[in-house]
Amino acid sequence: MSSTLLLAVVCVVVGVITTLAMRSYLITGLDDRLDALADHSMAPRSCDLGPRDTELPYLTAFGVPDGTVGVARSGGEVREAGMVAGGGAVLEPSARQQAVLSSVHADGHHYTLILPGLGAYRVKTVHADTHTGPVTVTTALPFDYVDRTVSRLVAVEAVVTAGGLLLAAIAAAVIIGYNLRPLNRVSATATRVSCQPLDHGEVTALERVPAADAGPGTEVGRVAAALNRLLGHVEGALEARYATETRMRRFLADASHELRTPLASIAGYAQLLRRDTADGTSDSPEDIGPRTAFALRRIESGIVRMSALVEDLLLLARLDAGRPLDREDVGLGSLVADAVHDAHAAAPGHRWLIELPDDPVHITGDPDRLHQAVSNLLANARVHTPPGTTVTAAVVRLDGQALIRVTDDGPGIPAALLLRVFERFARGDASRSRAAGSSGLGLAIVTAVAAAHHGRADVTSEPGRTVFTVALPLGPVRDQPPPSGKTPST
Ligand SMILES: Nc1ncnc2c1ncn2[C@@H]1O[C@H](COP(=O)(O)OP(=O)(O)OP(=O)(O)O)[C@@H](O)[C@H]1O
Ligand SMILES: [Mg+2]
């Protein structure tokens, strides 16, 4: 396109220069003829021996073009005027035409002027001395020959240029298109690779530009070879990233798993210690001493927190590893109602509402995981809002999706936290949350459970209204493919 534009500019410049040169050449030719006629008008007078019939004998000479006008003046008066008409006839120009011609300076220069009714003329005036006294002869040659020739030249140039440009554009499109086919294949490969999800999971071998297009002989081939090298590096980096992720996941899962056993023993020993009192049943400070009672309570609450944390970590590790979910028909209405009843029992100071559609909403999924996700949302509405807060749990069917929505009119989530609230270990006031037993994994589990069901979790929050939505597809849930054969054995 740009080359055609460049060619068009060159053609226009060449055309303009050619036209101007041609016009100048034609005017020079016209002036030469005008000089010859002017000389001719004086020549007989140089050997003038007596009176003549006419002051303008050259007008009737052979070869004088039709339209040539001559005016002879002496003493300021027009003595004779004639215009060559077709067939050798000489007509008299009009008075206005004569007046215009009479106004031309007798300085021997060439002028271009408009003769009324005749158009543009090239004019020259000369002096001649005759036996009857000095005579001024003005000769005018029609200019339209120059204009006509230039117009025709411009028309021919325009047609030839347009045709040439069209042919050049077609030829350029065909040739460039042919030459750029390898580049198209390179860009198609790059586009396909860029559409692959590279930010998570295992990256299978990235596509490469075919070797035939990646030869070092052409620029495109060198670009393709460089792209292939780049893809090789990216593939290596992604494999390393995936291996590290898998190692981390396995480590986390193994560590969580391993922690369960010592935690269970600590819990058991704590119970044993509690029984080891005066009567074997009481844990009152009077029986076991105030410091031991305090230490026991701290140990037990620590065990509860740690067990919950370990279970959360284990669950997240399993979801990350893409372990297949249970696939059962789950009635979301009863699931949400059960979870709300549990929450109500745990926090009777809150106002708990349930909104369910008339038609029951069922999905295929893992009931335990879904129950945990809903419980986490309700626990947040319970823990992070003051008593008296109204919490509404709703199930909605919308656009082929089932939505579980938990809304509360509590203080809301601070804007800075809202952006990363679904991240792991993202908590509000860290010190208060930690004291309240928060670990910051609840919403990470919600979003991981939603993703495992091919759904998603969202939140909007402002003071007085916080809405968590889990959107789940209504169709059957496909198992997530395990990331690789390296799935942790948890
Ligand atoms: N309904 C809510 N109202 C106000 N703040 C909320 C609400 N839900 C969550 N948050 C804020 O988001 C943070 C993250 O919640 P998340 O459930 O992930 O962790 P957590 O509740 O702190 O700990 P965990 O759930 O693991 O015990 C919370 O610490 C809290 O500050
Ligand atoms: Mg929580």
Secondary structure layout:
Layout (H helix, E strand, L loop, with lengths): L1 H45 L22 E6 L2 E8 L5 E2 L3 H8 L8 E5 L3 E12 L2 E10 L1 H36 L1 H15 L23 H57 L9 H4 L1 H31 L7 E4 H15 L4 E5 L6 E4 L1 H17 L6 E9 L2 E8 L6 H4 L11 H6 L6 H11 L3 E7 L2 E9 L17
Helix pairs in contact: 1-3, 4-5, 5-7, 7-12, 8-9, 9-12
Bound molecules: adenosine-5'-triphosphate and magnesium ion (MG).
Percentage of β-strand residues? 15-25%
Q: What is the N-to-C order of secondary-structure elements (H for helix, E for strand)?
A: HEEEHEEEHHHHHEHEEHEEHHHEE
CATH-derived architecture of the largest domain: 2-Layer Sandwich
Mean pLDDT: 85
Radius of gyration (CA) equals 51 Å
Number of separate domains: 3
Structural class comes to alpha+beta
Q: Uncertain runs with pLDDT below 50, 5 residues or more?
A: 45-52, 479-490
Count of β-strands? 13
Give the full name of the CATH homologous superfamily of the largest domain: Histidine kinase-like ATPase, C-terminal domain
Q: Cα distance, first to last residue?
A: 62 Å
Q: Strand order within the widest sheet?
A: 3-2-1-6-5-4
Largest sheet: 6 strands, antiparallel
CATH topology of the largest domain: Heat Shock Protein 90
Portion in helices: 40-55%
CATH class division of the largest domain: Alpha Beta
Characterize the overall form: rod-shaped
Ions and ligands: adenosine-5'-triphosphate, magnesium ion
